[in-house]
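Hello forum,

I keep getting stuck at the same step: I have a sequence, I want structure tokens, and every attempt I make locally crashes halfway through. Rather than fight my setup again tonight, could one of you with a working pipeline run this one for me? It's a single chain of 136 residues.
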Amino acid sequence: MHLVVDANALFSALIKDSFSYNLFFSGKFQLYTPEYVFTELEKHKDEILGKTERTTEEFFRLVESLKRRISIIPLEEMVPYVEEAKKITPDPDDMAYFALALRLNCAIWSSDKKLKGQDRIKIYDAHELSKIGSQP
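Reply #2:
Ran it on my machine without issues. Output:
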């Protein structure tokens, strides 16, 4: 299953070994994210480290592992989908995730409940994905 991963799903994996963390490394999903997401993670490093027991070294090691696991898509590849994404996203800050989902014709992995306030792109949270991932 192909999925666009948003920043809050990544934040969850970085904070603790959780559903999200396990799903990232389960190998059951083909994951994609816009290129700026890892810059956002770096920008919020101190906030994330304040919520976790991970060391700074563990944080950076995990970020590198996630980068190897997730296909990072340049923003230029989403440009043709931006106008449509703007029309359907409930939150303008999440427009790039919607543009990428439209480009790839796939769902989005997010725990942001307001993203489900549209009916064009399927939104899954980690608990929903864990049920899908456990099916044979």
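The longest helix spans residues 56-69. If your local run keeps crashing, start a new thread with the error log.
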